[in-house]
From TrEMBL:
<feature type="transmembrane region" description="Helical">
    <location>
        <begin position="111"/>
        <end position="130"/>
    </location>
</feature>
<feature type="transmembrane region" description="Helical">
    <location>
        <begin position="136"/>
        <end position="160"/>
    </location>
</feature>
<dbReference type="GO" id="GO:0016020">
    <property type="term" value="C:membrane"/>
</dbReference>
<feature type="domain" description="Integral membrane bound transporter">
    <location>
        <begin position="205"/>
        <end position="330"/>
    </location>
</feature>
<keyword id="KW-1133">Transmembrane helix</keyword>
<dbReference type="Pfam" id="PF13515">
    <property type="entry name" value="FUSC_2"/>
</dbReference>
<feature type="transmembrane region" description="Helical">
    <location>
        <begin position="317"/>
        <end position="338"/>
    </location>
</feature>
<dbReference type="InterPro" id="IPR049453">
    <property type="entry name" value="Memb_transporter_dom"/>
</dbReference>
<feature type="transmembrane region" description="Helical">
    <location>
        <begin position="199"/>
        <end position="228"/>
    </location>
</feature>
<feature type="transmembrane region" description="Helical">
    <location>
        <begin position="286"/>
        <end position="305"/>
    </location>
</feature>
<feature type="transmembrane region" description="Helical">
    <location>
        <begin position="248"/>
        <end position="274"/>
    </location>
</feature>
<keyword id="KW-0812">Transmembrane</keyword>
<protein>
    <submittedName>
        <fullName>FUSC family protein</fullName>
    </submittedName>
</protein>
<keyword id="KW-0472">Membrane</keyword>
<feature type="transmembrane region" description="Helical">
    <location>
        <begin position="64"/>
        <end position="82"/>
    </location>
</feature>
Amino acid sequence: MKQRVLSLRAFQFEVASRAAVAAAVPLTLLVPLGQLDWAAYAAFGAMTALFGRNEPYRVRLRTVTVAGALMLAIITLALVLALVEAPLIVLTAGLVLVIVAGILVANTAGLFPATPIFFVFGYAVIAQLPTPGDEFWLRLLVAVAAAVFAWLLTMSGWLLRRVAGRREPELYKNLLRGALVRPDAIRDRQVWISIAQNVVGALAAGSLALALGIGHPYWAVVSVVAVLPPPGAKHSVSRAFHRMIGTTLGVGLTALVLLSGPPVAVLILVIALCQFGAEILIGRHYGAALLFVTPLALTVVHLTSPVPVPDLLVDRVLETVLGSVVALVIVLLVQARARRRVLPKMRH
């Protein structure tokens, strides 16, 4: 039993390590090219490695391919909208499309996590980056290259396990079954309820952030998506608070990193470590994982388009609180509705 626990821990370390390498290598290659303003495309393409985890390789082949393809499609959409400097109404329509596609595809293909958080992150950041027309294809190529590298890294264990499997059978036992295809997910009422909650919450939070004049209102949108549970999961106030706290503390952790004005090498290391931490924790405690997901996204944004750090952090704290409160209100409304349904049944 002890050997199995140690093997499982080693496997989790392997999963998190490949996610960190998938992020670090493309970003490091951009440094000598002098193209750090392309960091977002590399980082979000590399998030392909956050999917697949410890699934058997036949299953992982499907989930990682689907996740990577969807991420690249969303990056392409965001790039097009940034290129044409799309008005707010078009960006909003794109956001709704990303939320719907993210939740539907995740639940149909069995992606984990089943929330659209990474897809919304990628869309929200890239759609607002100034994009010169002559760099469109180069920026997209960076995202594609990062996603392909992440895909290869995620699938590389297949060859390693074929070589070492006879001596270390535990390596195969830790590849858990799961990620079942659900073609009927598009007809699942819970999936569409989750989509409606995410869309309403995202639009409400974004509108409030705009009305209050807070810079970059997309962060409030991302906070809503981070706090709301996936389809079919319990709408728990405690879990909502865990996610709120994880997101807010993540902003604080980002402050510790960015306020010191670290060199580029340190920022890339922080992104890799955050990718590692997110992958270690996301299957155990989503709220704790957000402690790493938040500085991961913020550091990528800072690396891509540096702005005064105090302004960045103040905006993010305000937007995080705003988005989290909107999500919490939705959770409380869902709970109240559930209680109203239970009471008549109890009386009968």
